[in-house]
Each structure stands twice: as structure tokens, then as C-alpha cells.
Amino acid sequence: MKREVSKIGIFIYDCESKLKNVLSISEVCSKLEGLGFVCFESPASHFNEAMSDFEKYLKDNEMLKVVIAGCDSRSKEQIFKNSLKKVGLSPYWVNFVNLNEAIGYKEKKKATEKAINLVTQAAKWIEMQEIIGTQKVLLNQKVLVLGGGIAGIETALTLTEGGLDVILIEETSHLGGGAVAVENLKGLVKSKIEALVNEKKVRVINSSHLVDLDGHVGRFTARVEGEQKLIFEVGAVVVATGNELILPIQELDESSGSLAIGQKDLENRLSLSKDVPQRVCFLIDLVDEDLKISTQVLLKQALAVKEKFGSDVICLCRDLKVSFDGGEKLYEKAQEAGVLFFKYTKKPKIAFSDEIVKTSLINEDYPHEKLVFESDLLVVNEKIMPGRGSNALAESLSVDLDSKGFFQSDNVKLLPTFSSRRGIFFVGGCRLPQNINETLSEARATAAEIFSFLSKEEIELDLTSAKIDSDKCILCLTCIRTCPHRAIVVDQEEETAKVIPLACQSCGICVSECPVVAIELPLYTNAQIIGQLNDVVGEAG
Amino acid sequence: MKRDFEPKITAFCCEHSGLPSADMAVESEFVYPEGVNIIKIPCSGKVEAIHIMRALEEGDGVAIFACHKEACQFLRGNLRTEAKVTYISKILREIGIEKERVQMYFLAPSNGVKFARTLRVFYKNLKDLGPNAGRKEL
Description:
heterodimer; A: alpha/beta; Rossmann fold; FAD/NAD(P)-binding domain; 4 domains; B: 4 strands; 17% strand
């Protein structure tokens, strides 16, 4: 069978003459032309200069598919894709080769052979690449926000700034969430609530909760129950249910009374300028591993108590985590101001007796010695727990919870507020214990993310998602179970599994799990991958 | 005889960790053995058993580079592949091919050093093992 290879153009870029020293480009080119491809050795040393030449060449020679070989071509993918679009070619009909791989070879002959191999394989790959179709998809431009805390309110407000309609559902009878109980946040929360209530694009529904969520991104159907049963059609869902603070004092001792308080209570006392006793002992890391927030609060409060009231301040801690902004500096400042820090490895003993708290721990430097601190007030850090309804909510949204019971983000570093399902987002404390600034910026960022794909009513989607061959499908449901994004559903009429292109992220996990090989990923077909395994030069020789 | 033998390795690289690491390795000139054929895949979970077996027909060893556990872009793709590799090692034992020829490595996206080092170690191990008995005769 004659292969149609003459429409495949191969562009070789010798960036900064790096390649010339190790391999012979003309030999690579002649070999490839021998195989029937069209080879083009670019005189330009840099990609950006070559773009207009590149476009002109494509047009003049009526190229269809392109292979780009160069030194750092993978990082320039987008530039080439854009210029292919400009010429009117499919941006998926391009493949990139990193010829740096060949540079590691010591002999010139071997390096050239390797380069030929690399380029030919890429050309073979792109030769098998079929047309990627497009599909028009209608999007619902409403957004459902769950939770009326500061995170939910901020998200809703930012979304309305972008012109989207928002439905906000709050489980309790009032807005504000946990931030209302903190004195110095009250003003901020109040102004935000006022702005929200006055906003016409937001519909606030109190004392209700989400029961069930059907559908996929752009087209969710949410059932909400409360005073009345409601059904909404929304395009995206934001979960901002927050977390809960639990004082571990009951765990310490029941006779503590008002001698032991949480960090939040002390914060309120400080902002109301109430008196703080002369001797204060901070004790953190009794319960929680996630220390960043507690450390930040501890250092700030210890400094404030020391500076405002001149109290003796002692901090007992297992560890301090100063990874927040200015943490190390704050710690040094606290030490200079005279705050004493003691490290413990064994849990300190705490005894309460007439207005005095006695905390005793083993001296780390002299293990036979015991340190006893008397203080008038003991401040402990609160345990930060996931919200009460997290489990049920995660089940009805079919998203995952992490080991502690918080909502699991899709990728902690790259996509922190994304869930594993496209169109569902986690904002604020329900994902990770965090402070108010982080929550606010996260809320705004998420709103921008939602706006970027819900801004149009209709979008044209490239069908790079997995495809299921309905004739082969035996409806074993393996793909539905293994899909990490819940992008596959059962088509009852045709009795086959069906991929939802909008929800699919083209990972190919279903492809490799399907027992009857009914699924194919258009950009990484089986034939393409197996075609890569043969050594081209070996074949020819 | 063993000294002349040059193992051929097929490296399946996840686009999210293995491939950036490979790019970094070549850019920073961390030397890894010749005769490594890098194949890009969207997620290590995309590797099928048949791909690994076919790669063993063509070469002497297969290395799969995946993201760290619990850091998979697609949640559990790498864990699925790990199970697949265990399954394949059983098949290999039955047909009398050393299971050490198929290895899975977990690495971060910017770990060119580890990429090169693991391949060097793998190459040396393959050299000690000798040519793959199941490889197609050319």
C-alpha cells in the first residue's frame, strides 16, 4: 500500500548550532526524503524568527501534517499550534521531536542514526493521526455555590462581577459562616453580606442543603431540599462548606473552666481590648499535624500579649511551622521581645488548681529534670475538622475526600481548587485549613476559572476525548468504575457506555482497562503507540 | 560475549512526570544510556499489558516512568499501572522471561537526575541479565 507521506513536512531547527557539532543534519534530511517525506532545514537559529517563513512554506507547498524537530520544541508547542491554526490546518496535526536526545551520543554516526529514528517515529505517529472533530456544546451559565461563609460569599460576588447568575445555598439560617464569630472579621463579613443581599444576580436560599447532583459540567441538575424542594439547572458547582473548630480542652481536663481557652477566644479578647492575665502559657500541637495556621496565630498572639500587656509569655510546642509569609521573621521578633519557646516530645502534663494552671514537661536538654510552669491562662490551638456534612456531600457530588476528611483537590500543586470532576470546585476551608487572605484569593481565582469557561453560551469543543466503539462495548461497566473524572455514563437506549466529551480529560485510563478493547484515545491510538516500538533503522537495515 | 551486548530499552514516559524529566535530563546533559526509546503517553495508566509485551518482543527491557503515588494527575492511573506490572511479572515468570526486565519508577516532573540514574542502573542490570530470550530475531 502506498503511503501518503508527501504531505508531511518535516522541519529541522538547529537552535544555536548545537546540533551541527554532533550530527549531520543533511544526512538526516536526505534519509527522510528517501522515505518519501518532505524535509525542510530551517536556516533560522531560533523558532520565533522562523514563524513567518514557516507559515509561508506551509501555504506554498500545501502541507497537511507537520513534524517539528529541534532542541526545546516541546516548550514551543503552542506557538506552532497557533500558526498552524492561522494557516488553516488542524493544530493536532503536528508532532514535536526533541533532538537533544541524540546529542548524548558520542559518535556522530550513531547520533545521526538516533536523530533519523526519532524523526521518522514522530512522522509515523503523525501519519496515523486522524482528524479531530469538533462538537458544539451548550453551556448553562448559572453557578451553584454551596455554603454561605466568607469563601462562598466572595466567590458569588466575583462571579456576579463577571455577569454570571449565582444560586447560593446555606445550611443554617444566616450567612457569614465561621468568620462571624471572630471579632476583627465581623466588619468585613457584614459588608460582604450586605453587598451580596443587594446583588440582584444572586439568589440566596437559607436552611437548605444539596441532596443530589446529576449530569456533567455545563449541565448539572441539582436537587436542593430545605423549607421547600427545589431543582436547579447549573453549569458549575462551587463547594465552600468550610471547616469546624473543636477545642481539645475536654480532652485535657474537665475542671479547666475558663483557665484554658482556644486561640479564637484569645483573638476575640485581644481585639475587644479585654485584659489578659500576667502569666500566659501557649500550648500547641496537642491534636493537629497541620501546624501552619496554629503557628501563625500563636506567634502573632504571643507578640501582641507581650507588647500590649507586658505579660510573661511561654510557648510550649512540639514543632513550629514557619512556612507562611514572614514566618521566620515573626518568630525571631517574638524571641527578641522575650517570648520563651520550649520544645517537648512527650505530651506535657496539665493540672488546674485555684486560678493557676501548672504545666510540666521533661527538659529536653537534661532529661532527668522536670520543668514546671505556672500560669494564669492556658491557650491551646483548636482542632480543625472538616465540616459536619462533608461525607454526605461528597457522596452526592461523587467526589473524593482525603485521609482527614477534607475535600480532595485534583492536583494539590497544579490545580488546588479543582475537584476530580470537571465543573466542581472546592474553595476555602473545606479543602485545607487556611487563613482568611488565602481563602479570599482562592475564591476570586476560582471565580475567574469558572468565568473562563462559562462566559459563552455555546462553545466549540475539540473531540480529543476517548471514544467508545458501541459495537464492541459489552457494557461491563469497567470504564465507568475506573474513570477518575466520572466522564463515562451508560446510554440506556443504545445499550453502550458513552463518554461525555466535556467531562473527559483524555487520560486514557479507560482505554487500557477496557477488556474488549472498545475504547480508543484519538491522540494516542493503539496503532500509534505500537508503531513506536519498532526500530526504524533496524527495520531498514 | 556479554560485553558486546547493548540492551535496548523502551521507556514509557507519562507526559506529566517522565517526559519533562527526560527533557530535563537531555537538556542538562545528564547522560543516560544509548538505545533508550522514549514513548510519550498521557498518563502511565494508559500503558496496556500488550504494549509492554510488544515492547519486550522488540527490545530487552521496559521502563515505565510515572508520577509519584498520590500525585497522579488523574488520581489513580499510576497505581493501576503498578498492578498491571505485577500482573505482567506473573506472565513473564510463566513463559520464562526474567521479571526484572519490566520495571516501574515513580518520579517528580523535574527529576532529570533520577531519570538518568535509574536508566543507567536499569541498563547495567539488563547487561548483567544478558539478551532477552523473547526478543524477535532480526
